[in-house]
Amino acid sequence: YNVLEKLRAGEALNAKEKQIHDDGLVTLLRQIHEEIDQTVLEAYGWSDLATAARDEAFEEEILTRLVALNHERAAEERRGLVRWLRPEYQDPASVLPVAEQTTLDGLDEPTPSAKTLVGPSPDTALSWPAKLPDQVAAIRALLPETGPDPAALSTRFGRANKKREEQIEAILETLRGLGL
């Protein structure tokens, strides 16, 4: 990055810096950074800054605009408007769609789909999966129907017992920790 900064400043490179430039593909790195910068400016609607010199005045303008944008977002949030980046994971009011994936890359055996896990009715006892990933998938599939109650979830897998409730509670804690 020191060599990149020298290139941006238009300074001459010494022999060691030329070697770093060649070995580190600094010209490619510079191009990638410029593309990222351009994309970010366009995303914020600040294309007017795309041709500006990258100097202190440029940095001041970026910071001024970011502070103003932060104030706008804070005012929106006070009014109840939240701009979620990934609402399906962040928004507590969002309903997660249950995946219907039947296989995972690299695995020969299919993973249970939501339809397989939920079964025909709440009165039908399901088999408790042997593998942890399948247990997690089973619990996630039952959450919309049963809710996050370990005892209620445990009864969906036959006779309720303390060990299974503890396993389910650990899975629920993990899902909560992951925001799922």
- Characterize the overall form: elongated
> How many domains would you count in the coordinates?
2
**N-to-C span:** 39 Å
State which percent range the strand residues make up: under 5%
* Helix share, percent: 55-70%
What is the makeup of the main sheet? none
> Using DSSP, what is the number of strands?
0
Uncertain segments are 98-104, 106-120
What is the count of DSSP helices, taking H or I runs of 4+ residues?
Answer: 9
Class by alpha and beta content: mainly alpha
Q: What is the succession of H and E elements?
A: HHHHHHHHH
Spatial extent as radius of gyration? 27 Å
Summarize model confidence as the mean pLDDT. 80
Describe this structure in words.
The protein has helices at 2-9, 15-23, 26-43, 56-78, 87-90, 114-118, 132-146, 150-155, 162-177. It is built from nine helices and no strands. 58% of the residues lie in helices and 0% in strands. The protein has two domains: 2-78, no CATH class; 91-177, no CATH class. The two termini are 39 Å apart. By secondary structure, the protein is mainly α.
Summarize the structure.
This protein is mainly alpha-helical and 180 residues long.
